[in-house]
Amino acid sequence: MKNEKKKILFGEFVTGAGITRALEMGAGKVVEDVKSSNLRGRGGAGFPTGLKWFLTAKQESDEKFIICNADEGEPGTFKDRLLLMEQPEKILEGMAIAGFAIGASVGFVYLRGEYIYLRKGLEDAIASMTKNNFLGKNINGSNFSFDVEIRLGAGAYVCGEEFALISSMNGYRGEPRNKPPYPSEKGYRDKPTVVNNVETLCYIPYIVTKGAEWFKEHGTQASTGTKLFSVSGDVKHAGVCELELGITINQLLAEVGGEGAKSVQVGGASGLNVAEKDFDKPICFEGLPPGGSIIVFNHKRDMLHVLKNFMEFFVEESCGQCTPCREGNYRLLEGVKMLEKGECSVRYLKELEALCDVMKDSSKCGLGQTSPNAFLSIVENFKTEILYR
Amino acid sequence: MTTGTRAAIDELHEILLKHDKDRTQLLPILVDVNNYFGHIDSNAIVEVSRYTNVPIGEIHGVITFYSFLGQKKRGKTVIRLCRTISCDMAGKEQIVRVLEKELGIHFGETTEDGMFSLEYTNCIGMCDNPPAMLINDQAYGDLTPERVVEILGSFKLSEYQDMFGYGGVE
Q1: If you placed Cys at B117, which of A43, A210, A303, B110 could pair as Cys (CB 3.0 to 4.6 Å)?
Q2: d(CA B10, nearest CA chain A) in Å
Q3: CA neighbor of A103 nearest in space, from A40, A148, A69, A54
Q4: Terminal CA-CA length for chain B
């Protein structure tokens, strides 16, 4: 990897320093700091982490829960795999700090079934942190106790959506539900719950020890901090790199040896396809979607084939609960197959584009609301290539 | 192994007793039963229903929701090849041919001796080492035809290996 791993997450870190500092600061100040750091969820949706904590902290309840969302399933994303493998202590410490901040004494790591081989490392990290009194009873001699349990998923992309994840943990089909109530009010076991992405939690110990101002020195005004990018496809250096939010596609491609690309899929299958003309646009919450998945396509790639792969993915992974998503993705895939045979008229393509808008407006969860993105952006960027074959 | 025999029922109860009688334990129970027996048959569903007090129909609904859980018996060794875009672009199709020819079955099938099942799976987070596959609990990346033949050979050899231990990324 050309990029030096030194920014934040790949920088120096002493296990236990974060939770120790948090206990000194007090819960209110921790929530305040995370809020003012403007840290936003790194799973893709980008909800402000501090606000999530604040809303859950103010709930009155005998029990609250922290869930680490390790159900990383977006095509082209593997940054959490690296964090779970190399830095499990940091994730657990972030969870403990979150627990202290909102008043939870139990946390869960929802680990996707595909990552079952990472369970042992996580268990070892839990054991060693408990031994060092950074987890477990009376952490660092305080009256705060926090235990972490691992829960395995069983192969369902939609369970990465926080409502679906909670349904799954509650022993139901992993289907999203209407909101409100939000997990901050009614989550696991119907108790106030915070669900944070693996990467989000990893920034917490740094924000607590180094301060919100320091964190804000990275990134842009609206998108503070760095971000892990999972880079794959037609590049010289596929892998995970940590870059500041606000980086343009051109800069990113230069980092990973992907110059001369035809297009880049930013944010995974549910993200956007970006063609060369837009390579100067930044990746951040106010720009291109910063989910972290970067898939690079060279000039030999057939974009209709790429689109077909994405649509097959969504047809299979749609939970089937709401009609726009279940039927919509099916129709889009059917349209792609018609395009393949050269049987799709311009008029029908327009109808499919209108269907995309309906799906965005009326699907229940993020899956159906974002799955038309790939279709719309690839059709827009490569209309001639796709339509006249 | 089916849960039709007395011994199997006892083993099933051993798994159940590790969990609380609580709805939130349903998925952990089903994952454990599926990993141990290779599938969750109707006997097992009845027992899980009795233990957790969750209706049989709802358990059926949960099982069919997850691609890793199944009511049909899978092979002792389950091979799941990633078919998502990064693996697809890195030559997944050739790996498909190698696996099918080496095992003499198509995707979605199990070998007659019950040793191997072939399945597709969606993105397994190995996009930096494509093409990739999961074999039981382990992930294998940077697949080439030669490497696949070699890996399959090692599985054929160690027929009685512990399928339920932990693996690692290779």
Answers
A1: B110
A2: 24
A3: A54
A4: 30
Same domain, B47 and B89: no
Give the domain range for residue B38.
Answer: 6-65
Phi, psi at A148, each rounded to 5°: -120, 135
State residue A382 phi and psi, 5-degree precision. Answer: -130, 45
Question: What is the torsional sign of CA B123, B128, B132, B134?
Answer: negative
Provide CATH code, domain A226-297: 3.10.20.600
In a domain, B21, yes or no: yes
**Interatomic CA distance for residues B80 and B136, integer angstroms:** 8
ipTM: 0.94
pLDDT in tens, A233-283: 999 999 999 999 999 999 999 999 999 999 999 999 999 999 999 999 999
All residues of chain B having their beta carbon less than 8 Å from the beta carbon of residue A189 are 24
Q: How many domains does chain B have?
A: 2
Query: Which chain A residues contact residue B127 at CB under 8 A?
Result: 75-78, 230, 232-233, 238, 295
With CB atoms and an 8 Å threshold, state whether B85 touches A117. Answer: no
Render each residue's pLDDT in chain A as its tens digit; 389 residues. Answer: 444 445 889 888 899 999 999 999 999 999 999 999 999 999 988 999 999 999 999 999 999 999 999 999 999 999 999 999 999 999 999 999 999 999 999 999 999 999 999 999 999 999 999 999 999 999 999 999 999 999 999 999 999 999 999 999 999 999 999 889 999 999 999 999 999 999 999 999 999 999 999 999 999 999 999 999 999 999 999 999 999 999 999 999 999 999 999 999 999 999 999 999 999 999 999 999 998 999 999 999 999 999 999 999 999 999 999 999 999 999 999 999 999 999 999 999 999 999 999 999 999 999 999 999 999 999 999 999 999 98
B29 with B58, same domain?
yes
Q: Which of B122, B126, B129 to mutate to test the interface with A (most CBs of A within 10 A)?
A: B122
Q: Confirm whether B31 is domain-assigned.
A: yes
Q: Which among A78, A188, A317 has the least Cβ separation from residue B128?
A: A78
A232 vs B23: CB contact, 8 Å cut-off? no
Give the pLDDT score at B166: 42
**Cα–Cα distance measured from residue A167 to residue A149, given in angstroms and rounded to the nearest whole number:** 17
Q: What is the CATH number of the domain that holds B99?
A: 3.40.30.10
Name the strand (E) or helix (H) holding A355.
helix A346-362
The reply to whether B108 falls in a domain is yes
Residues B61, B82: one domain? Answer: no
CA distance A168 to A183: 13
Secondary-structure class of domain A303-387 per CATH:
mainly alpha
Whether B163 is covered by a domain: the verdict is no
Domain A17-216 has CATH 3.40.50.11540: yes
Question: Locate tokens 């609380």: which residue?
Answer: B20
